[in-house]
Structure formats: C-alpha cells, structure tokens
Design a protein that fits this description.
With 327 residues, the protein is of the alpha/beta class. The protein is globular. It has a five-stranded parallel sheet, with helices on both faces. The protein has two domains: 33 residues; 289 residues, Rossmann fold. Helix content is 47%, strand content 15%. The chain has twelve helices and eleven strands. Helix 5 packs parallel to helix 9 and helix 9 runs parallel beside helix 10.
C-alpha cells in the first residue's frame, strides 16, 4: 500500500511539473511571438475584474495600464480607455459616446488612432465643443454594452450615442465562476486548450465554419439573439427618454468582404434602427473594395487596424453631418 501511494504521489508530482514546464515554455515563446489568444488572455487577466453579476460579469479595472500586441492600453477612473471626463460636463460641452466591444476599444491600435480619437479629430475640423468618449470593452455583447451604458454612460451626460454593432454581438453573456476564475486568470494553459477546443468544435463538419457559427448565433431560438434584440430596443428607449441622439453603425467581418455572406447579421441592427426611424450606417461599402487582410491589426487578427479605423471614423462623421446630428 505504501508503494502504491508513493507511486501515485510521484505520478501526480511528475504531471504537475510537466504542466508547469509547459506553461512556462508557452509563456516564454509567446513573450517574443505575438499571439492573439495569449494577448487577449493577458488583457482579460490584467485589465478586467469580475463583478459577480449575471448582467455584467466583468468590466475594466480603473486606472490600470497594460501593453498588448505591442500597444499600450490605459484606463481612466471609470475603467474606460480614455482620458478623464468631468462630471457634470462643462457648460457648453457636447459629448459623443462610442459603445461597442474590442473594435471600439481599439484592440491592437494606439490610443490616438482608435475610432473614438479619429472621430474626435474629424469632428474638431468643424466643431470645437465636442468630446468623444470611448466605452469599448473587449468581449462585450450588445446586452453588456447597454448595461455598461446604463451604469456608467448615463452619468457622463452624452448628447449622441454611437452604437458600434459587430456580428458576434449576439454571443451569450459569459458566465464567470468564482471557483475557477483564479485559475483561469493566472494560468494560461487551460485557457489556450479551451480556446482551441472551442475553435475545433466550431469548425467540425463545416465547409465554412465561420458562416455555420454565425448562422447558429442568429437562429431565432438562440438566447443571445433574443437578448441582443432586447438590448437594442432598450438602448433605443433609453436614448429616446433622455433625448439623446442615437446612431447605429454596423462593422462588417473583415474576413469575408468578398461577396459578403453575413447580411443576416447586419439586418438585425438595421431593422432595429429603421423601426424607430433612427439613422443607420453600414461600413461594408467603405471596406468591400479592399483586400480584408490589409485592414487587419495583424496577419492572425482581423480587428480593424489604424487605417480601417480612419476609414470608419470618416464614414461616421459624414453620416452624422448628413443626419444633422452635430450642432
């Protein structure tokens, strides 16, 4: 019995040492080779904190700094990737609030080249009294974006809200377990394995796994689909009640610009806007003549790069001018 217990202990220790060596090796390798999964994990582990809330499971920590994909991300006292804003806002100041996920955050893009800052420069060419606020948070869906707006956005007194809708905004709100969170936060290996298994399950048996995955997200019986529709309705109601102008903007998936197959996703945001007689802007026509990869932040990551953010900001500015949203 003693020998059996001894052998079991040796086996457990050997397995743990092997896992520690693999974890260290993976971290060392990715410290010199930028990898989307690893950098996004670092961002989540270092800049986010769980809230124990089913509606808003996490948000950015306040006043923290990190460097991801070679780009610095700093948060202000509200946890936004932005400068500090006065509450209440100064007399005569008007504010445009950008709601969205990692595209709006500016993943992989320097702060001055994010969508919000690009738009700020565009607006400043004709108007001197506007501040542009970046509420973008990585891995948020429509429901979480609207919840963040309710909890933090309204206190900043926006005059205009720009909702940056992306095709994966119908993904379910993540559930964060207080039991597993410390492990997932401090150990990369299980996150990496889980991400790869998820990707394999999405691709299994599908000639175009991306379209299959998105079709499933937009199935009428999908919980995320229903909640996204409800979130859009709630945002429309909230902004109308507060007399805040609202512009809904669709960001196309830059991996499939040729003969774009995801119009069914664009339709969700477009229909929500049209039913409430609100302005809607689809960025696809501004991107579709490009080779999509020239707009990516890296060869492995299809987030919008600085050039794509510049194109989007100009299109949004022109739409706001056309709709007489700025004054």
């Amino acid at each position: 019995m003693k020998r059996i217990l001894y052998n079991i202990c040796i086996s457990i220790i050997s397995i743990l040492l092997t896992l520690i060596i693999i974890e260290g090796g993976v971290r060392y390798y990715f410290s010199d080779h930028l990898n989307y999964d690893f950098e996004m994990w670092r961002y989540a582990a270092e800049l986010k904190e769980p809230l124990g809330d089913t509606l808003l499971p996490f948000h950015h920590k306040a006043n923290v700094f990190g460097k991801y994909y070679g780009v610095e991300i700093n948060t202000n006292s509200l946890g936004l990737r932005d400068v500090e804003f006065k509450i209440p806002k100064p007399l005569g100041t008007k504010r445009v609030m950008m709601l969205g996920d990692s595209f709006t955050l500016g993943w992989g893009v320097p702060f001055s080249e994010t969508l919000a800052k690009r738009l700020e420069k565009q607006i400043a060419t004709k108007f001197s009294n506007y501040e542009i606020l970046n509420m973008g948070t990585g891995n948020y869906n429509s429901s979480m974006e609207v919840e963040l707006f309710k909890r933090k956005g309204l206190t900043l007194e926006p005059n205009i809200v720009v909702l940056m809708y992306y095709i994966n905004d119908t993904e379910p709100t993540p559930k964060i377990s207080s039991n597993t969170y410390p492990l997932m936060k401090h150990v990369y290996l299980p996150n990496y394995v889980n991400a790869k298994l998820t990707q394999l399950s999405m691709m299994e048996g599908a000639s175009d796994w991306l379209q299959t995955y998105y079709r499933k997200l937009y199935s009428p019986d999908s919980e995320g689909f229903r909640k996204s529709k409800d979130a859009l309705k709630e945002l429309i109601r909230l902004t109308a009640d507060k007399k805040i102008k609202l512009l809904i903007v669709n960001i196309p998936d830059l991996r499939r610009l040729d003969k774009y197959p995801f119009g069914f996703a664009t339709a969700l945001a477009k229909e929500a806007a049209e039913k409430s007689v609100l302005p809607f802007l689809d960025l696809l026509p501004f991107f579709e003549n490009y080779d999509g990869k020239t707009l990516w932040v890296s060869k492995d990551d299809s987030h919008m790069n600085s050039h794509a953010n510049s194109i989007a900001a100009e299109a949004i500015f022109e739409k706001m001018i056309k709709e007489k949203m700025l004054e």
